[in-house]
Amino acid sequence: MNVHDYAAQVLDSMDHVGNVYWVACGGSMIDLYPADCLINAKSPSMVSAIFTAEEFNLVPPAALGEDSLVITCSHGGNTRETVDACRIARDKGAYVLGMTNNAGTKIDSGDWPCWVYEWEDDTPQSERPAGFSLALVCDLMAAQDGYTGADAMNQGIAQLDGIIAQAIPQVVNDLGDRFVELCKRHDFFYILGSGPTFCQTYGFAICSLMEMQWQNCCYINAAEYFHGPLECTEPGVFYFLQKSSGVYRPIDERAQRFLETYTDTLMVLDSAAYGMDQLDEAVRTYLDPIFFYEMNVTLRGVRGKAFDHDPDYRRYMGKVEY
Amino acid sequence: MNVHDYAAQVLDSMDHVGNVYWVACGGSMIDLYPADCLINAKSPSMVSAIFTAEEFNLVPPAALGEDSLVITCSHGGNTRETVDACRIARDKGAYVLGMTNNAGTKIDSGDWPCWVYEWEDDTPQSERPAGFSLALVCDLMAAQDGYTGADAMNQGIAQLDGIIAQAIPQVVNDLGDRFVELCKRHDFFYILGSGPTFCQTYGFAICSLMEMQWQNCCYINAAEYFHGPLECTEPGVFYFLQKSSGVYRPIDERAQRFLETYTDTLMVLDSAAYGMDQLDEAVRTYLDPIFFYEMNVTLRGVRGKAFDHDPDYRRYMGKVEY
User: Which of A140, A282, B47, B287 is the S-S candidate for A47 at Cβ 3.0 to 4.6 Å?
Assistant: First the structure.
């Protein structure tokens, strides 16, 4: 079954999709965020919200019910909180669709539909959760709202693989050495981003850096930066700006202007400079996060080599009970 | 006009409240978050979402329209992004209700209803934006959903003033010196919280510490902590846990157990130990953020004195153009 089959199955089973709830944890939740944003931006008939699973479980939304579509993802497949969320949602009458990299795990128990995806270096973006969920949402909106952007989105998702493959060596070349040097000189730094890309601002911080590199850092919404965090800015404080290419770009540009004035330690990764400007603005707003995810992976790899810290090494996850 | 009058005016003007959008920036946005959470937890007929204003302005929700209630807050009254949001929402046919501390400012232009609040040391919580918005939402849900929790909520809001007044000197005594000492020894630390309280985890970071103390730090959702950030934990890394007293408490307890095992530098502020346990669990879940706000103010004051850094001093806000 491909993404269009999954969408058709949802539409066959539900009279009307009123709410879409995206429920997962950490990196798996982050992948679902662009599709959550897309619904709220484009659909007049659906409202979307995203939850870290344990908060969903302790206080399920009052509107959760038979017109709710609950899309969950557990990359490993046995994330306790996410599997609990599937059960809670199913018991409330919602349509549950799981996603996992591992067939036969608890999220792929057969109790609800579950899409099992590959996660290899050459897996195309259309076959990974972020791309899949965007395409799924486009089909739902096309059927329910007459949304006409699905073709452009699917074309954009298909273009990502080439753009990313070309960008990786360029970003390593342009930013790699300086990023390593700045990480060596700073026990801590700030990462800024906005709009749908903010999920990968968060992801760069909590997954690529905190989890995989034990690098202390903080993620800041670039619009919110002007309402508090800017006061920390001064020469010697390191800021990494994810400059997006879509409709939220003015927020990032404003942050860049301020940072260029008030710190001497700024690194800007501009997706428009690495091919994202080739896509429609309406589409690239939601595809930028996928671009930034791959650059996060790239930069953590470069840092990992320089620091002799394998990004796959963990001291707690999968090793101790908690 | 009191909060019930504002609620009655909304209900008189709107046939049905379908969406509630809370739109503001920084600290003013943070104050609206508990009411956003309350709607989604309790109302089967309304869906609520919260936005930093500039993201709302660049991509207004597709569902924004005549059944939308848009509640905005600009403490100073002239926040450009927030005033723009009011205009955008009004032009889409939404019912706009502003809030500000300063009468006659741009948000209080007369183009939409605007509640002007006091913000003195002795202003009761019921007359501040967080308490006001919770009470407003209770009235809307009582009318539209038959919600029966309004009396308990209003009683809880009234109890907060006494609980907070009693807690402040105790928290200074119990945590003050050690908090200052830990800030002196750490250029950076992590703050953890969950559920509605997470807004004040964020607020402690971006307002009280980054903005008012130039103290680098990062805010982490205590449920998300287990899906990445925990790998940074080791002796010598400072964690501040806001332990909430309501239904999300198990998340915080789990984080506390892990932190007590894997770092030697933990500070826990447990709202239940300072009187919040006197309130109904259903109510205190949404009132904990107000408690933690006041403790954030208290701790930044203690730190400010010890560091000779007046929390009211700014180097950029209100001083330079951006």
Answer: B47
How is B68-135 classified by DSSP, letter by letter? EEEEEE-SSS--HHHHHHHHHHHHTT-EEEEEESSTTSGGGSSSS-EEE----TT--GGGSHHHHHHH
Give the model confidence (pLDDT) of B270-313 as tens digits: 999 999 999 998 899 999 999 999 999 999 999 999 999 999 99
Report CB contact under 8 Å: B58, A26.
no
Tell which phi-psi region holds residue A308, choosing left (phi > 0), alpha (psi between -120 and 50) or beta: left
Do B127 and B224 belong together in one domain? no
Q: Is residue B284 part of a domain?
A: yes
pTM equals 0.98
Q: What is the pLDDT of residues B84-103, one digit of tens each?
A: 999 999 999 999 999 999 99
Residue A87 has pLDDT above 90, yes or no: yes
Query: Measured between CA atoms, how close is A55 to chain B, in angstroms?
Result: 6
Chain A (235-254) residues lying within 8 Å, Cβ to Cβ, of chain B: 237, 247-248, 250-251, 254
Q: Does A1 touch chain B (CB under 8 A)?
A: no
Looking at the fold, whether A128 and A258 belong to one and the same domain comes out as: no
Residue at A158 is within a domain: no
Share of chain A above pLDDT 90, in %: 99
Q: Which of B25, B212, B251 sits opposite A227 (nearest CB)?
A: B25
Residue A45: band (very low, low, confident or very high) from pLDDT cuts 50, 70, 90 = very high
Q: Is residue A21 part of a domain?
A: yes
Query: Which residues of chain A are within 8 Å of residue B73 when distances are taken between CB atoms?
Result: none
pLDDT digits (tens, 9 = 90+) for B212-238: 999 999 999 999 999 999 999 999 999
Residue B212 belongs to what domain range? 176-307
Residue B163, chain A, CB below 8 Å: the answer is no
Q: How far apart are CA A252 and CA A258, in angstroms?
A: 10
A130 and A193 part of one domain: no
Total domains in chain B come to: 2
Q: How confident is the model at residue A281 (pLDDT cuts 50, 70, 90)?
A: confident
**C-alpha–C-alpha distance, residues B295 and B293, integer Å:** 5
Q: What is the pLDDT of residue B281?
A: 82
- ipTM of the prediction: 0.98
Q: Are residues B85 and B180 in the same domain?
A: no
User: Does residue B15 share a domain with residue B102?
Assistant: yes
Chain A residue at shortest CA distance from B54:
A223
CATH code for position B30: 3.40.50.10490
B119 touches chain A (CB under 8 A): no
Is A76 domain-assigned? yes
Distance in Å, alpha carbon of B310 to nearest chain A alpha carbon: 13
